[in-house]
Design goal:
Elements (H helix, E strand, L loop, with lengths): L8 H11 L8 E2 L2 E6 L2 E7 L8 E6 L2 E8 L18 E8 L10 E5 L2 E7 L14 H8 L1
Parallel strand pairs: 1-6
Antiparallel strand pairs: 2-3, 3-8, 4-5, 5-6, 7-8
């Protein structure tokens, strides 16, 4: 599938990150990848520099919400910041999950600044064979 590109989209994203950090009431978006791997749906979020205790993951019905907060690494009075390009503030992403996913068994792992959620495909959504009744069933109907 091909997508049209917008040459100003990346510029808008960078401008948004630099000029307006996220707050809990207006969080910034976080980049993510989503793919199916076997019988699991995998969602990976980039959250470099965010400690695990600053990440909040919620599922309500079929809505998955991930929020994270990155605070300044240095906040002492005697420090003079020369350059600050890393985005700070609150980041959030909401995803509507399909009914075919088992939200009761989501597994979360955080390694090297990447939050990875593994969501199993529900048993009812997996393909299965349906047996056709044989001779014994026909005899019962005649009876």
């Amino acid at each position: 599938m091909l997508m049209r590109t917008d040459p100003f989209r990346e510029l808008d994203r960078i401008t948004e990150q630099l000029l307006r950090p996220g707050t809990w009431s207006r969080p910034s978006a976080m980049p993510m990848d989503a793919y199916r791997e076997g019988d699991e749906y995998v969602v990976a979020f980039d959250l470099p520099g965010v400690p695990p205790e600053a990440i909040d993951i919620d599922v309500e019905r079929n809505m998955l919400t991930v929020k994270a907060e990155r605070r300044p690494a240095v906040n002492a009075d005697h420090v003079q910041m020369e350059l600050s390009e890393r985005p700070l503030g609150v980041f959030s992403r909401q995803i509507v999950l399909a009914d075919t996913l088992d939200t009761e068994r989501i597994d979360a792992d955080y390694d090297a600044g990447v939050l990875t959620l593994r969501i199993p495909i529900a048993e009812r959504a997996k393909p299965r064979k349906i047996a056709i009744g044989g001779e014994s069933r026909r005899k019962q109907l005649k009876g």
